[in-house]
Amino acid sequence: MLLETLLLLTATKAGRDIFEKKSVYPIMREFHKWETDVHVTAACEKLVEVLIGDEPEPGMENLLEVDIPEEVEEKLTKADAREQEELEKEQERMKQEEEEEKKKRSDTEGSEKEQEAGLIR
């Protein structure tokens, strides 16, 4: 939610200028390197795209006030829905991998304890 708030602040030229002066991009770049939640990394990537992107044309300084044609808005909505589905799948995949890794560690620890018990006898 915080990253989405930051993204909204980049909608105006003044907000983008402040982010540039405060060197937000390098912070977000480093944050992206260690974040593991797919939803958070997606939000971070959107913010970074705005931070490193070119400034909009004159008259489009406030991105929240730009008129978007209806057909383009529909395409963007569908693309967002597809992205959300992909993020959900990725998150589920990562969760399964994490559970498998925990099980392997647990099995390994159990085997080591059994071996130790056998040596003690």
Automatic annotation (TrEMBL):
This protein's source sits in the domain of life called Eukaryota
Against Pfam families, the record matches this protein to: DUF384 (PF04064)
Chain intervals for the UniProt region annotation (Disordered): 67-121
Q: Which InterPro entries does this UniProt record tie to the protein?
A: Hgh1, Protein_HGH1_C
Where along the chain is composition biased (Basic and acidic residues)?
Answer: 74-121
**Chain ranges of the Protein HGH1 C-terminal domain:** 5-58
Q: What is this protein called?
A: Protein HGH1 homolog
The organism is Notothenia coriiceps
